[in-house]
Design a protein that fits this description.
alpha+beta, 11-stranded antiparallel β-sheet, 4-stranded mixed β-sheet
Amino acid sequence: MPAFSEVPTVALPARPGRDALDPLLAEHHPGRLVVHGTDADLAAVVLRLLRTERLDVEVAYVPASRRSAVARAWGLPRDAAALALTGVAPPVPLVRDDTGGVLVGAAQIRDLTGECYCDDVLVLRGRTPRLVVAAGPGGVAVRAGRGTGLPSGTTIAIPPGARSGRGAALGRAVQVGGEPFTAVSDGVAHPRPLERRTWYRHTVDWRLVRP
């Protein structure tokens, strides 16, 4: 991309893992990383920063698609390339899950039969065609029902000063349980059906370049 012609760039495989990222981090000791790719690529980078205890590294994201759930969740502009080089990177909530991953944008479960709690708030008991969980400045948000599909449903609005509404809530953790379901996080489906899944705010924030 022209905006990055004056800075070092490295081409990495999709959803880069330890073998691709760890040597790069060790060699360059970056103060800021710019990730140009998919939401899943960004999640892979943030996961490596977490596991190598480098959450102090600033991360800028330039989505490869305008349908990015991360861009919606964090309010990134279409001209994210300019922001990536000049914007500030405040600490923001890092959302983890109980299978060892992170959630940087949104996750969804279709045709869920079961229960969902956000902290101590009951969001769902029964069946819903779709459940969406989103990371964001307030922590972890969740909404159940129709019209919550990705990517258009990844901005989960909670009234100011309120923690929950009918079928929706905002808090520090979301717990889901029920009949076997497939969870799709940042565009990647979990490899096997689950009966339980938890997303929760980590004790340490990460640093995201955002408006």
